[in-house]
Amino acid sequence: MTSLGAATQLLEMICAAIAAPAFLGWVNQCRAWLQNRSAPSLLQPYYGLSKLFRKDAVLAESASPLFRVAPYVVFGAMVVAAAIIPSMGTGLPLSMAADGIALVGLLATARVFLSLAAMDVGTAFGTLGARREMMVGFLAEPALLMVLFVAAMISKTTSLPLIAEGLATRSIGLYPSLAFTAVAFLLVLLAENARIPVDNPATHLELTMIHEAMLLEYSARHLALMEWGSALKLLNYACIGFALFVPWGTSTEAAGPAGLLLAVPLLVLKLGFAGVGLALIETLSAKLRVFRAPEFLATAFLLAVLGLLVHLLLGT
Amino acid sequence: MTALSIDLQLLNACATLLLLLSFAMLAQRRIVSLVNLLALQGALLLAATLLLAWRTGEVHLYLSALLTLALKVVGLPWLLHRLIRRLNVYWDAEPAINPSATMLLGLLIVVFSFGLAQPISALASTATRSTLGIAIAVILLAFLTMITRRKAMSQVVAFLSMENGLFFGAMSATYGMPMVVELGVALDVLVAVLVLGVFFFQIREQFDSLDLHHLESLREGD
């Protein structure tokens, strides 16, 4: 393990954790502009988090230890996930321990704990949210795996940094299979992060909420960690998308510290564009009925599998 | 990874878009949009034919491109749109199988046809042989569309999409059929649509609807 590798690793984890609320704030800001509202400050999520961290936590009487542990597990899983996604540099020592499939497993762990905690207290809304989350999850996961498999087959490895390197250095050309999987990945990103066609992150209307329903029983630092965790999840998904579909600009181990210095502003630029795109999608589309969500995710799965098949047939 | 030449890459992209359009047709329930998708499929076929003609320098491919433009991009969609307006059918009924299941069935069909095409394209010598699997998939997906639809109108659209698939298959296996065959097929399709158009009016006259379920009972008065 080189010192540069360790530095990249540390920088990525800390930057991801610090930048995640800002990215969420940026998406919210763009959304507000597009909807002719006056936008909240970019720092609004930080204010929210610091307020929550200062408050005293209130726990339900029926809450088990699992309920208290879950926020730390969810947040921890997201930070570890951020550590193995090559967002700035590809020379990540930790990524040797976990490949793309393990990453999907990590995200699944967070989901399982979140859902269990939501069911733990025994309120109707928590259970409802948890069930819906599992419904979305079990459909989105295979689609995400398929997307990763296509990228893995093109670059012949399941390790995310090597995939990003392989895709960045491939010959310029049209890759229909990658185009299909990119669309599939976008659909999965929207569904997994409780964005608008599947869930509305701003709603507290009981009948439609999924993610918010699971957090209803949480307060103070637990809630803060959960919200921070979901902001981090959004950032992680965006970074997976960059690693697979716009891998140019991530620093390689050979590029040294200079490459890393160049990679950071590029990543900020990519995130900026991603935020605008996400806000645009959310403004232009209407929320689906919950019963239509499986169709939405079936489309994602279909596109990802088609990408895989087309890659096998055409070999490009 | 071997880099393909740019025109071959574009051809492959056209082929995959054709496949995607087949799936879109499988899912689409508005008949007007179905016809538009068919026109789009025709346009993609036109682009693919022109690309292949430019690549191989075969003159008859330019002619068949012209035929595609006249018939599949402009002629038939216009005819179908007119029929839709006059028959006043805009929506298909509930499909026979639920949409997600149909999609998964479609995926199985794609796997099957890719497997089917593998030995054939291994023997073919054309540059476009790898797209044969997609052509077969387009044909079979059109079949599936016909099976799952109830309205006569959408079945005809699926039938035309199947013809598109056949045309593309011939193109990728042997750089197109002989001109005489192509002209014959084109004429056949045109006449078929005209005759079926007359049929539609007859069916509606008889049953007050274009739902083909009414045709399943053989005796009158059941």
Rounded to the nearest angstrom, the distance between the terminal CA atoms of chain B is 64 Å
- Which blocks of ≥5 consecutive residues of chain B have pLDDT under 50? none
User: Structural class of chain A, please?
Assistant: mainly alpha
* Element-by-element helix/strand order of chain B: HHHHHHH
| N-C termini distance of chain A | 35 Å
DSSP summary: helix tally of chain A: 11
**What is the count of distinct domains of chain A?**
1
Rounded mean pLDDT of chain A is 85
> Which sequence of SSEs, written as H and E, runs from N to C of chain A?
HHHHHHHHHHH
Biggest sheet of chain A, open or closed, and with what strands and sense? none
Rg calc of chain A: 19 Å
Describe the structure.
- The complex is a heterodimer of chains A (316) and B (222).
- With 316 residues, chain A is mostly helical.
- Chain A has one domain (3-314).
- Chain A is 71% helix and 0% strand.
- Chain A has 11 helices and no strands.
- Chain A has helices at residues 3-34, 44-54, 65-84, 100-120, 124-155, 160-169, 176-192, 211-215, 220-245, 256-284, 293-314.
- In chain A, helix 5 (124-155) runs antiparallel to helix 7 (176-192), helix 7 packs antiparallel against helix 9 and helix 7 (176-192) runs antiparallel to helix 11 (293-314).
- The longest helix of chain A has 32 residues, at 3-34.
- Chain A is globular, with a radius of gyration of 19 Å.
- Chain A starts with a helix and ends with a helix.
- With 222 residues, chain B is mainly alpha-helical.
- Chain B has one domain.
- Helix content of chain B is 77%, strand content 0%.
- Chain B contains 7 helices and no strands.
- Chain B has helices at 6-27, 31-56, 59-87, 99-123, 132-148, 152-174, 179-207.
- The model of chain B has no long low-confidence stretch (mean pLDDT 83).
